Amino acid sequence: MATFSAILALLASLVPAPQPAAGWTVSLSGKVTAEVTQTAAGGLAFGVTRGGRRVLEPAPLGVRTTTGDLTKNLRFLNRSTRIVDERYTMTTGKRLQRHARSAETTLAFAGDGGARLNVIVRASDDGVAYRYTLPSAATITGEASAFTLPANAPAWLLPYSPNYENTRVETTASGAAAGDFGFPSLFSVGADYVLLTESDVDGRYSGARLAHAAGSGSYSIKLADTQVPGALSTPWRTAIVGDLATVTGSTLVDDLASPSKLADTSWIRPGKVAWSWLSEHQSPSDPARQKQYIDFAARNGWPYVLIDEGWDASWVPEVTRYARARGVDVLLWFHWTLLDTPEERESRLAQVKSWGVAGVKVDFMDSDSQARFAWYDQITAATAKYRLMVNFHGATIPRGLQRTWPHVMSFEAVRGAEQFRTRAATNTMFPFTRNVVGSMDYTPTAFVVSDRDTTDLHEVATFLVYESGWQHGADKPENYQARPEALRTLDQLPTVWDETRLLSGRPGQEAVIARRSGERWFVGGLSAQAAKTFDLPLGFLGGGRWLSDTLRDGYVRDLRTVGPADRLTVPTATNGGFVSILCPAKPGRTSCDEPVRQVPRTTLTLTPPSAEGTTVDVTGSFTPDAAITDVRLAATAPKGWSVTGPTLNRDRLAAGETLTGTWRFTTAGQAVGTTDLPVAATFRFPGDPARLPVHVESVVQTFVPPPNPAGTTQVSDLPFIAESNGFGPVERDSSNGEAGGGDGRTLSIGGTRYAKGIGMHAPGSVTVWLGGACSTFTANVGVDDEVTSPGSVTFRVLADGRPVAGTGVVRSGDGAQPVTVDVTGVRRLTLEATDGGDGKNFDHADWATPVLGCA
């Protein structure tokens, strides 16, 4: 019989002995080196050096899964290496043309029970990154991943929130408070800087943040979800490493991301955006005011207007046509829940595309969960399908998505101008932190913000210093026009760049960025210091003589000729700023300004302006005020209709010359309700700096009646021939949920519940077709019991556009009020709810049991 000691010896022989300490290095050129070491206990650690200097101390690697712990007792299997050499083109960012080179090593390990773990490490001259791959499917419950900095390393950190809008703090690696910090996180280590972040996150994984214990120099990876099922590979844990200019100019986050999914990017067009919400919160619900912003954009060559929260489907198509005729495209705001499901995305994105909208701003995602990243995968694919550019607000930070989906123009994820508390010190941190990892929709140049310690020229310079594919001017036209020198400069600033360089800077103190577009260089400076004079090198100009046009504090404009051996000296006020534009000096050249795009006015008249029936003959006449070229005039059949008639083409149309065509639109009757029948002209014009076609469209509004209602009919069972709503869609047989369709509850007024009815949010309305077939309408109206704060609504009934019944102000808790109306001979019946006078919030208006008595 074996002795007990012999049995123990046998069991011990079956357990793999710990491996001797081992290590591997990865470096592209010797400049930056990643180190992976293995301890005698089989754990892994990751460190970084630059030029032989220690930048990141060894810190743990590994993952824990539901099937095994891959942070210890790891057995090394093999190593493979390769050079990653990629060239790719961006539509946004610090430069369009990219060349990414890195050395890559894959280290394969086996854990207890045979579970496999691959650690993939990349090193380039501007940083390092690593990710894990799991050859077998498993659910990850956490990472051991961490980064360790010297305790006294200065740090600029962002206390975590899922919208990344907290105020960044200046501290040290060990002196930072205990808690979570959001990416990107910047540290200064001797002569070097380290920016920690992540790249290539998608719906297969969750986002992460850094967790810190007080007094420690270590920051560990904390996942947004406690379990991440089925991950085949994790995101890249990324450290951008170098001097401050290297960090600021790095494109490592994009270099690590998945390649573009779009073969054709010709429709993607960054640009300046006129935007009304910040300076006038109620203006997005005012189509007349939006047209004034469009006129401002058209005069100043800004290609876009964003209509933010408050727009209504009843007028957006007409405003979009107004804008496009002036060379301006419309962007529309959406709450993300309105685009949550495949059905909602398909319906709403197809609709706005049919209106001629060029892109969308999607807001309030506020999450780094795996589910939300899966939604980002879906919304980027859906918007690309409809060739709609997209901007994310209330969002996570960029993690390489703009490379994968080049139609993503920007992300917010910053404490921007909308906080209405602008601080120069905070502004001078963003170029070295948030804006390093991708486009940043700060919404700059907000003179309207009264609580700011910045000068006007500091505000102007943010438009240039901050990179964003769509750059939203945050102030109203009148405030820009009151500062003509500022507006002149803004009109000249591109949003697409061929090169970007840091000329001078220190987080929290100052930032001077030089960007090139074509043959012109643009230099923007931000100061968070007392009055000073910037003294900047111009070696980036390369050679020759250059005209330098500088606008500085006090709206002083300096014009001089310089060369690459000269210095650019610019006095600034306390918390001041400046913008310099440099262009090759030529005989007689006195300015670096280029022409601002202004589209010739045209007239497109259609007859008849409106019609009723299933066959409509339309005549269109198109006349320009100036000579234009490549003219095309044609009709397009909307869904459910067909059209016959010519497509008219002219190489040139003189000023005052008219092009006329006639078309017949026909429907078999399935296109019930109101439909816009469009005729459009497209053209180009000589000297257009954008070299883009202009689209001018007019419509004939046509109505095809649905069948008349019969007998006793619930209004909620009828088709709506027109509808609008303050928040979300109008709901049938439920209250207004404010976001997506079908998110309401059972209608309830004063404690009484109703199975049938219409839930809307003031201001809202629905119109149904009676066709003269009904005689009575009855309903019970009131504010739904679901609101948690007082709401107030005024209800009206309109017969063929005429008010025939209404209530006074109805408030929460008032109970249902009966409405009875004689609708004899009425063709169109409209039910309307308007704000009771104290703002539209909480105005959930119910039309309970709305019944028609019909023949």
From TrEMBL:
Record's keyword terms, sorted: Glycosidase, Hydrolase, Signal
Record carries keyword Kinase: no
Keyword Hydrolase: yes
Gene3D superfamilies documented for this protein: 2.70.98.10, Aldolase class I, Golgi alpha-mannosidase II, NPCBM/NEW2 domain
Entries under SMART domains matching the protein: NPCBM
Start and end residues of each Glycosyl hydrolase family 98 putative carbohydrate-binding module domain: 709-854
Molecular function terms from GO: carbohydrate binding; hydrolase activity, acting on glycosyl bonds
Stretch forming the signal peptide: 1-21
Pfam families noted in UniProt: GH97_C (PF14509), GH97_N (PF14508), Glyco_hydro_97 (PF10566), NPCBM (PF08305)
InterPro entries (alphabetical): Aldolase_TIM, Galactose-bd-like_sf, GH, GH-type_carb-bd, GH97_C, GH97_catalytic, GH97_N, Glyco_hyd_98_carb-bd
Protein name per UniProt: NPCBM-associated, NEW3 domain of alpha-galactosidase
Organism whose genome encodes this protein: Amycolatopsis xylanica
Lineage: Bacteria, Bacillati, Actinomycetota, Actinomycetes, Pseudonocardiales
